[in-house]
Specification:
binds NADP nicotinamide-adenine-dinucleotide phosphate; 242 residues; 8 helices; 7 strands; alpha/beta
């Protein structure tokens, strides 16, 4: 994709990786719209990046996803890039009485929401790029975050299928596969000792310039290549291009 002159919607763009992407895309000469649940986080992001366009939206709610799409179609019909970045991570054990409730929340935000967003936004005539933010844990689960890991495996698999299904359209699908990074994912403080997102964002932009479609960094590169030659052959056999 061209890295300048786009109009981009970044879900969860007020914090962490989404904010890092917002900042860099603005520096590169793009218009960025972000959405999230917390007005305070959206306002804080807009204070740092005054050109940001913000929209409050709870992506767990199907009606709010549809309203977001309709608002974009009416107010920003030239939007050409959707970045499905918003996500939640719940640490839990089998003793957790809230296990099922937390699992449903992760499944809704990490799976249902981006799936629905892809279906909605592919109808926008101007759309040419979708980026999905998955995780290294899509390839090997961390059992402290069992449902989160499974949602990311689902999202990775869905991304492969959508890329294949969209191959005869003008829409390309790029997967961003972060390793663990210092953000507030899972709660404040949990990731404090992890690498900052700055070098990760640099690596994402380097790989976008190289027109890669699976963007990795650090150990996520190793994780994403586990058994890859065998997997690619199998995927090709199962999904022949006719
Ligand atoms: N940090 C890591 O180590 C890491 C590693 C691999 C993958 N990832 C992925 O990277 C993505 C970004 O996470 P992050 O690390 O940057 O954490 P983060 O700072 O917590 O960002 C998550 C963002 O998603 C938004 N969000 C959550 N639920 C939402 C909802 N129902 N509706 C709308 N927005 C919602 C949050 O905003 P509100 O709370 O205001 O809604 C927040 O801005 C996630 O998909 C995550 O799984 C992160």
């Amino acid at each position: 994709m061209q890295l300048t002159g786009n109009k981009i919607l970044i879900t969860g763009g007020a914090t962490g990786i989404g904010f890092g992407l917002s900042e860099r895309f603005i520096e590169e000469g793009n218009t960025v719209i972000i959405c999230g649940r917390r007005d305070s986080a959206l306002q804080e992001a807009a204070d740092k990046l005054p050109s940001l366009i913000t929209k409050q939206c709870d992506l767990e709610n199907e009606d709010e996803r549809i309203a977001l799409y309709e608002w974009i179609a009416a107010e920003h019909p030239d939007l050409n890039v959707l970045i499905n970045n918003a996500g939640v991570q719940n640490w839990m054990s089998l003793k957790d009485p809230e296990f099922y409730k937390k699992a449903k929340n992760e499944i809704s935000i990490n799976i249902e929401s981006p799936l629905h967003m892809m279906l909605l936004f592919k109808e926008l005539g101007s759309l040419h790029t979708i980026m999905n933010v998955t995780s290294a844990l899509a390839f090997s689960p961390l059992t402290k975050v069992p449902v989160y890991s499974a949602t990311k495996a689902f999202f990775h698999s869905l991304t492969l299928s959508f890329r294949h299904m969209l191959r005869n359209t003008d829409i390309e699908l790029i997967e961003i596969i972060p390793p663990v990074l210092n953000t507030d994912l899972g709660g404040k403080g949990i990731h404090d000792s992890m690498p900052s997102i700055d070098l990760f964002i640099d690596a994402v932009f380097e790989q976008l310039k190289e027109e890669k479609t699976e963007l990795t960094y650090g150990f996520s590169d190793k994780f994403s290549k586990i058994g890859q030659p065998e997997f690619q052959t199998l995927f090709g056999q199962m999904n022949p291009v006719v």
